[in-house]
Write a structure and sequence with these properties.
- This protein has 13 helices and 13 strands.
- It has about 375 residues and is α/β, with parallel strands linked by helices.
């Protein structure tokens, strides 16, 4: 019988949590509070405690989180923001949205902002750097801050994929002026729709973020600045509150499964496995292998009933809105050779071993 292992099946997870999620929905339906309210307050309080940060401000989605962060730092026309050439498009997109120019920087062998070439990208117009903790692996933030801080360059961390990653006891997102998270359904901590988060240790920035995401209002009909509507949906906050109870157990399962992958694949000729995925500064969001035979391997696994994904088929600097913005050999190389294997808490050990056997069979 042919095996069937989808890359990710959100239905399985939510079937398991169905009773609790339905109960949460019914409770909120009865209360009739669908914007703001105690579920949002509870979520922000829980996230503050978990991330060990003074301010955790929920918003509509991860892209909004980054745009809001740039806006409160007053980054706009005439400014440059350095972003990695390999990332989801939002990182570069939000820079354009505030009127600034993204300056791409190549990545290192792990797909992270290459700190060895970063300084070459800095000009007198550079106002911020946006490191991306790609696939859940953190950039060396201590070293990055040593580069940017003396120059007065702000750091906004794109931690969309890194919820649950900690470097020397400090969460992704706490090193720069602000950190931005996504709770898109496929993330380690995912809502049942769109949701995001901004964290900061700066009281003034936190206050400005709160104003900006609700039309600049300090209270009803009192507008302090030109803002927008980026409030988190209260239902999504409620669903995330249910899921927070399970997050650490889910993370433990991810690491366990990643360990099985490493056991079977790390010495296999033809592929490179993710570096440091079992360490604290990697949240095991994606198990991305690299192979020169990526496309053939993907097709082979599909024929075996195994789902995979490509994150990302192009460096963002090579996509239509940004193409022509420089040559980034490592970013392009990784984009052409990376394949993501199934990794999530509702995957069984037997299934991971079946994936490993299929990968081994392809190369052998």
């Amino acid at each position: 019988m042919k095996i069937r292992i989808p890359f990710l099946d959100l239905a399985d997870m939510h079937a398991d949590l169905a009773d609790e999620l339905k109960a949460k929905f019914n409770k909120m339906l009865q209360k009739g509070i669908f914007s703001g309210g105690e579920e949002v307050d509870l979520l922000e309080s829980s996230l503050k405690d978990f991330l060990k940060v003074p301010h955790a401000i929920a918003c509509a989605n991860g892209t909004d989180a980054m745009e809001l962060a740039l806006r409160v730092l007053e980054i706009g026309p005439g400014d440059e923001v350095i972003v990695p050439a390999l990332t989801w498009v939002s990182t570069a997109e939000v820079v354009k949205m505030v009127g600034a120019e993204p300056v791409f920087c190549d990545v290192d062998q792990y797909g992270l902002l290459d700190l060895n070439v970063l300084e070459q990208q800095i000009t007198e117009k550079t106002k911020a750097v946006m490191p991306v903790h790609l696939y859940g692996k953190m950039v060396d933030m201590k070293r990055l801050i040593q580069i940017t801080q003396p120059l007065g360059i702000k750091v906004v961390e794109d931690a969309a994929q890194a919820f649950g990653a900690f470097q020397e006891g400090n969460s992704a997102g706490v090193f720069g002026e602000m950190g931005c998270f996504s709770f898109y359904p496929t993330k380690n901590m995912g809502a049942l729709g769109e949701a995001g988060l901004v964290i900061t240790s700066d009281d003034a920035l936190a206050n400005k973020i709160r104003l900006m995401l609700t039309h600049g209002q300090s209270k009803r009909d009192v507008h302090e600045l030109v803002g927008r509507n980026s409030r988190i949906d209260s239902l999504q906050a409620g669903f995330l509150n249910v899921k927070m109870e399970y997050f650490l157990a889910w993370q433990q399962k991810r690491k366990q499964l990643a360990g099985i992958y490493l056991e079977h694949l790390q010495h296999l000729k033809g592929i490179t496995v993710p570096d440091g995925i079992l360490k604290d500064d990697h949240n095991a969001h994606i198990f991305a292998i690299r192979s020169e035979e990526r496309d053939a391997l993907k097709q082979y696994l599909e024929k075996q009933g195994i789902g995979t994904a490509i994150h990302y088929p192009k460096a963002v600097s090579a996509t239509k809105p940004f193409e022509g913005d420089g040559d980034f050999p490592m970013a392009n190389k990784i984009a052409q050779t990376t394949l993501s294997l199934p990794l999530h808490p509702y995957l069984g050990e037997k299934e991971v071993r079946q994936v490993c056997e299929a990968v081994q069979a392809f190369f052998n």
